[in-house]
Write a structure and sequence with these properties.
elongated; two-stranded antiparallel sheet; alpha+beta; three-stranded antiparallel beta sheet; N-terminal domain of TfIIb; binds zinc ion; 2 domains; 87 residues
């Protein structure tokens, strides 16, 4: 998370974040480019910034690789199933 403000090149208004780390291209592509999409509330100019590079993290529990911004999907499923079984 970067705290620095992005300013519109045209009117110097602070851009507002429309979509953070928006995946560009196919969902099925192995390596996707992520872009932060900003929009100027003043003039409507849209700017794309390359999202901060995120290396996938390896889950210490199950070894699956996943985005650091997401919880481990495998463990989430396992937790759901174990909760279910415990009832
Ligand atoms: Zn502007
Ligand atoms: Zn896991």
């Amino acid at each position: 998370m970067s705290a620095e403000k992005k300013l519109c090149y045209a009117c110097n208004t602070e851009l507002t974040l429309v979509s953070a780390s928006f995946p560009m291209g196919s969902t099925f592509a192995h390596e996707r480019f992520h872009a932060d999409i900003y929009r100027c509330p003043q003039c409507g100019r849209v700017e794309l910034f390359a999202a901060e590079m995120e290396e996938n993290v390896i889950c210490p529990v199950c070894g699956a690789s996943h985005s650091p911004k997401e919880k481990c999907p495998v463990c989430a499923i396992n937790a759901a199933f174990s909760n279910h079984a415990a009832q």
